[in-house]
Write a structure and sequence with these properties.
Layout lengths: L8 E5 L2 E8 L4 E7 L17 H8 L8 H56 L15 H18 L4 E2 L10 H28 L6 H18 L6 E2 L1 H68 L5 H26 L4 E7 L1 H4 L4 E6 L4 H8 L9 E8 L2 H11 L14 E2 L3 H10 L14 H6 L1
Antiparallel strand pairs: 1-2, 2-3, 4-5, 6-7, 6-8, 7-9
Helix pairs in contact: 3-6, 4-5, 5-6, 6-7
């Protein structure tokens, strides 16, 4: 630097770059000051998002030998594939959620439809009554449910009630049809209410009476709706009658089961009495046999005993042994016993007999039990027939008189609308061993009462 070319001013000190020294135009002075820091370079503007420059800035300086444009295209493709995968995952999740929601909506709609249908049926008098008499049945429940389902379908189709289609209100056919429909629904509700009441009071014997009552209800509805030609459809009425009839049959079946169970219990009680009686008789005969044998041994050892006395004891022993054999036979053979033919004219008249069988050793014990306080007079005995197969003989007599059986539900009630003479003739026809048959036996209570 020459003195002629550099004007006076502050310049960086060649010996200390971080300070400035004053140059007076000729030489350096001793005046110094800190050098001002260099101004930072202006910031480089960021590239716009999504541009290639932005992608390169995110990736950083490339160390690959691939051309920068090809590298950026590869990276772009990789990001596109990643974005597509994310997108389809979101689509699948959305579709799954939408399917679940659609399923819930369908279930709610079905429940609403079912509720509306049930409300419509209830307006017509249809109720899902779990207290139906046949609810605990299997065979009859299925038959009744089929009939009720068909009736409900007719109600929903508005086929259960017939009505006029030309009725008008203020000249309007539409209003007239609406009025006929409402009145028909009211009539059907009254009919169904009557049907439910009749079904719940149907038993084994009154189904015919209940069917007649329902028919009268149908006639009442026909009379009330005569002006609009309203009446219960014949098919609908037939289904209702069928339901009452099935209910009556179910009640009759229940009654038969109950009576059969009662008969089984009675038979078991009778069997227990027979076994106890045979056991007591066997013990009694065993005692008698022991006493007679001891007496015979003592008599045979006594020189003063006569042959006649010894023989009499042996005869007694033989009788006891025969009785023991008979008891053992009766105990072993459950079909042996007495068939009895008895009547009670004071209670049932002269044209009714009871034909039964007992295994009691003394059949009169059983007959006396039958004539207890439940009848006003004791039974009169026409015949007592012992048979080694009394069960078969009794069953054959019952078969011959089945047409005149009085109680057709409880088979243990062995009463028949027949005269003693008819029973006697049947026994002769069967070649039964009848020692004695009294057509008009003595009955002291009945005779004295008359």
């Amino acid at each position: 630097m020459t003195t002629q070319s550099v004007p006076a001013g502050w310049y960086p000190d060649p010996s200390a770059p971080d300070v400035k020294r004053w140059w007076d135009g000729t030489t350096w002075t001793t005046h110094v000051q800190p050098a001002a820091p260099a101004a930072p370079p202006p910031p480089t503007p960021s590239p716009p998002p999504g541009s290639i420059a932005a992608a390169r800035q995110a990736i950083g300086p490339s160390t690959s030998t691939v051309e920068p444009v090809a590298e950026l295209e590869s990276e772009r493709e990789r990001w596109l594939q990643f974005a597509k995968a994310e997108y389809w995952e979101m689509v699948e999740a959305f579709d799954s959620e939408r399917a679940a929601l659609e399923k819930q909506v369908a279930a709610v709609e079905a429940a609403l439809v079912d509720r509306h249908e049930r409300l419509d049926l209830q307006e017509m008098g249809f109720f899902d009554d779990g207290d139906h008499p046949v609810a605990d049945s299997v065979e009859f429940k299925q038959a009744v449910e089929v009939a009720r389902t068909r009736r409900k379908a007719m109600g929903q189709r508005k086929d259960a009630v017939l009505g006029s289609t030309s009725w008008t209100v203020n000249g309007s056919v539409t209003e007239g049809r609406k009025m006929v429909d409402e009145f028909s629904k009211l009539m059907l509700r009254a009919y169904n209410s009557e049907l439910d009441a009749l079904v719940k009071t149907t038993n084994a014997t009154n189904s015919g009476v209940k069917i007649d009552a329902l028919g009268k209800k149908r006639d009442q509805i026909r009379k009330l709706g005569r002006s609009m030609n309203i009446e219960i459809h014949p098919e609908y009425h037939d289904l209702a009658v069928y339901e009452i009839r099935q209910t009556g049959m179910f009640q009759a079946a229940k009654l038969r089961e109950k009576e059969a169970e009662r008969a089984r219990r009675e038979e078991l009680r009778e069997q227990a009495k027979v076994e106890a009686e045979l056991r007591r008789e066997q013990e009694k005969l065993d005692k008698e046999a022991t006493l007679y044998l001891q007496a015979l041994a003592a008599m045979e050892a006594n020189p003063d005993a006569t042959p006649e006395e010894v023989e009499a004891l042996r005869v007694k022993i033989a009788e006891v042994e025969a009785a023991q054999a008979d008891v053992m036979m009766r105990a072993a053979n459950t079909r042996a016993g007495h068939v009895y033919v008895i009547s009670n004219p004071g209670a049932f008249g002269g044209d009714m007999v009871k034909i039964g069988m007992t295994r009691r050793l003394d059949p009169m014990d059983r007959i006396n039990e039958l004539g207890d306080a439940s009848v006003p007079f004791r039974f009169s005995v026409h015949a007592l027939i012992f048979s080694s197969d009394a069960v078969t003989l009794e069953a054959e007599l019952h078969r011959r008189f089945e047409a005149v059986r009085v109680n057709r539900v409880n088979r243990r009630r062995e009463f028949f609308r027949a005269t003693p003479q008819q029973v006697r003739d049947t026994l002769v026809d069967l070649s039964a061993h009848v020692v004695e048959f009294a057509e008009t036996p003595t009955n002291e209570e009945w005779d004295a009462s008359r």
